[in-house]
Design brief:
Blueprint: E1 4-7, H1 12-21, E2 27-30, H2 39-45, E3 50-54, H3 55-63, E4 68-77, E5 84-87, E6 102-104, H4 111-124, E7 132-135, E8 150-152, H5 159-164, E9 170-172, E10 183-185, H6 190-201, E11 206-213, H7 214-219, H8 221-236, H9 253-265, H10 275-286
Parallel strand pairs: 1-2, 1-3, 6-7, 6-9, 7-8
Antiparallel strand pairs: 3-11, 4-11, 5-9, 5-10
Helix pairs in contact: 1-8, 4-9
Amino acid sequence: MSRASIVLGQTAIAKAFLERSAGPLDLDVREVKPVHRAFRPMVEEAAYDVSEVAIVTAIQAADHGRPVIALPIAIAARLQHRSLVQNSLFSALGPADLRGRRVGVRAYSQTTGTWVRTILETEYGVMSRDIEWVTQEAPHVSGAPEPANVVRDPAGASPLDLLREGKVDAAIFGNDMPKDDWVRPVIPDPEATARASLERTGVVQINHVVSVSRDLAERDPDLVRELWHGFAEAKAALPGDGPDLLPRGEDMRHSVETLLGSVHNQGLTTRRLSFDDVFGEGCRLVG
């Protein structure tokens, strides 16, 4: 097998994979922090042989025919209901109150934000078109659509600054969730609500998946299959407590199809995609 460059973040499964696979596989491990800085060069230029990418980035890459193949391997996920917050010094809003309001998010295509909008749509009947989305960054995939109700903050202020100053009514955060005393969830009791939603719907809110360059897939398909097995071993080594938030293969289909339906409603794709449109080639590669 050939030598392959790889970019992964700091998730437990990524660390376990590298610990187990760095020897058997000839991997050139590249460090990119934060890992989302690797997503654009991966999908636009296939800058690496293997890279973690956000699932919405993978969806938009498939929509626009970029030279990457998404593998059906989830390596990051979270319960997303807690990610939508407000400033209690200015408001006390619930999900239905967001209609006609402004919500800050780093990028409209950011996966955490996309899942939050999916939750608002499917669980609360609030459509993305009912809200103005204040952003700082463009999509990782050049040419990916953004609806008319998506704006850039003219000063480039961060979602945190906008929320702190009351310039947006709510904002979306992932790992960068602020700790300020005034931060309050928009969705009441978000952790319990998220657990109940997962149990009721079976939808896992996947953040990141593994992708490979088309060049690697064509010149060394055996290595791609070894990635599949390596991540399976890494997952098996993790603690098994709680629900499975890292589905693989066909186990991802229901969650991905749910996301894809809302992604199109949100104006993030040019057409309604299916699981097979995004992950079909990857499924065939890994057998």
